[in-house]
Amino acid sequence: MPRKSHSSHSCHPISQFTKFGIFPDFHRHWFCCVSENEKSLLDSTESIQLEDEYDKVDEEERLCEPETQNIGQEEERLIFSHVATRDPVEIYKELKDTVHCKKESRSDWDTLTEVLRCFSKSGWASNQALAVYIGASFFPFAAHKFGSFFLKRCNNDLVKYLVSLGPGDEADKFLFPIFVEFCMEEFPDEIKRFRKMVESADMTKPHTWFPFARAMKRKIVYHCGPTNSGKTYNALQRFMEAKKGVYCSPLRLLAMEVFDKVNALGVYCSLLTGQERKDFPFSNHVACTVEMVSTDELYDVAVIDEIQMMADPCRGYAWTRALLGLKADEIHLCGDPSVLNVVRQICLDTGDELVEQHYERFKPLVVEAKTLLGDLKNVRSGDCIVAFARREIFEVKLAIEKFTNHRCCVIYGALPPETRRQQASLFNNQDNEFDVLIASDAVGMGLNLNIRRIVFYNLSKYNGDKMVPVPASQVKQIAGRAGRRGSRYPDGLTTTLHLDDLDYLIECLKKPFDDVKKVGLFPFFEQVELFAGQLPDMKFPKLLEQFGENCRLDGSYFLCQHLHIRKIANMLERTQGLSLEDRFNFCFAPVNIRDPKAMYHLLRFASSYAQKLPVNIAMGMPKCAARNDSELLDLETRHQVLSMYLWLSNHFEEERFPYVKKAETMATDIAELLGESLIKANWKPESRNARKPKPQEKEEGYQRPMSLIKLHEK
Ligand SMILES: Nc1ncnc2c1ncn2[C@@H]1O[C@H](COP(=O)(O)OP(=O)(O)OP(=O)(O)O)[C@@H](O)[C@H]1O
Ligand SMILES: [Mg+2]
């Protein structure tokens, strides 16, 4: 069948795609079309080859100088401007029918060569080419072939026009549609292959992935406001009134809190997290972590807490999925205003009704301008010192307990939720000596604590590469933990340890909330499976990488970072006997990828599973609480391994994990040991991957703030 002509501009593939605005969201690189040999050949010989063509031209032809030789560029452009309006399809046909063309002067030739070289390097053209399914890695090869084709066949008018434009955007735009015609004829198989692959990684219109939710007319209520303004409280009222409700939490800890609170108020509620399932008999309510929420069940009321997490680079997809997919008549979203505009857009796409309820903070947060003047001795009862590294948390605890009469509780990410709760209630409770809390950003979400004042120990944190300022939204969220309604200190205060940091704190608190433009998505297994069908021999980690590079997304979405997933995928690459689905599921296991011991256990679990053996815990139980920081780190790791075991037992065939009961008991015991250890902890912190520094090695990165040094010197 002859190919459809694209002579009409309105039906040209380029204009169709531009209409939908998909170009910028394509990711680059497609390694399947061009072999490595071809690629390296391309890079080294491209311009040389084009110049050689000139040298091959007949001497007589070269001497034939064009009449317009001495006119200026602008004039030339005018004279040849009719070329610009020509139909690219016709130009291509003409080029195709030309057998041999008279050559131009050396300088015109050089300019034309440069124009074509620039085109083959043009990011714009490469990006546009994706829309007609010419992959980014294939583009240089195709552009090179096009260049040779063009040089051999172009006529005087075309040359002059392109020379008058010179290398750059205008020439690229002129050449591009001719290039497309060329590719469609020359590389139909490559285009077809790439098209199939891209289509299998299509993540556009995610609201259409949930047809049952789309068939419903849902009412979305956005409880929008700053921290401590009653958003969750009000949403939970509706949740409790409902016949059947689900509460989606950002953390296990918060799901447990709601589970306890709601049951205490007489509304039977079950608990569902990745690690545990507590079925309350006859309950119609469930408190779960957002990743675990079912999009199959039908609910009257659903609550999605901390909805701004939709924009989280790693976990955002879980909130997006819940919002798009939940089958509930009424969905209550609680969060700051940063994703309000995106939610408005999503509701337009889904056809759901959106009701906005705006909140103000119960009591304004007051900044204490005096700060702690760099001296931890100025700590007072009810203070929560926020530090962003585990090491700092223990340094601060050590310093405060050594030089003041205060005792400190600690809350940080690596602690199990049970231990965090135990530390929180120790701090909240008046009948003991623990009156200061030292916490990481893990304290930022949800927990209702009796905090009088949030003191930022510092306002920068390590992002895995370097120290960066803590984002304003996070500063606000954490500072907002001070002075909760109903707590002992309803008037919240916040300040910094050092005077130098105060301006940044004030700046962050004053800053309006970001207006988030994109929220996270991640493919379901079925989507990855479809994609894998296009690349049958590709290993899973590479497959994920390819998916990330080739998937298509609408303007309101980004693909969540999958570094964590890729790390696990890489580790499991050589484990034989796992299906694609097993690999995909193992990648979501909750493990600290920077903890080699925990990673080792995950590999062991996966290997046993792959060999169809019962998966053993194969880990001893420590006898007593930690006596130093390395023992504490060991307890943290052990708990994490058990938590991972429980998670796997809930996400794979349960009978393959026969030691669930044992793992639960051990996890509870370790959480208790951790609690005991923290009460006693008064040692210098160590790093998880500690090794002895070489004598000449200087300690890099974090430097202990002056205040602590002064304190120790004294
Ligand atoms: N109407 C109310 N009556 C009694 N207590 C309330 C009321 N509204 C809120 N509270 C209490 O105020 C505190 C803060 O409320 P809530 O947790 O709902 O705030 P939030 O806006 O969700 O804050 P965050 O953004 O930090 O999650 C809670 O302890 C809550 O129980
Ligand atoms: Mg809340």
From TrEMBL:
Catalytic class of the enzyme: hydrolase
Domain Helicase ATP-binding: 212-328
Catalytic activity: ATP + H2O = ADP + phosphate + H(+)
Family matches, as SMART domains: HELICc
Bias kind Basic and acidic residues: ranges: 684-702
Domain Helicase C-terminal residue range list: 371-524
Superkingdom per UniProt: Eukaryota
PROSITE patterns: HELICASE_ATP_BIND_1 (PS51192), HELICASE_CTER (PS51194)
Protein name: RNA helicase
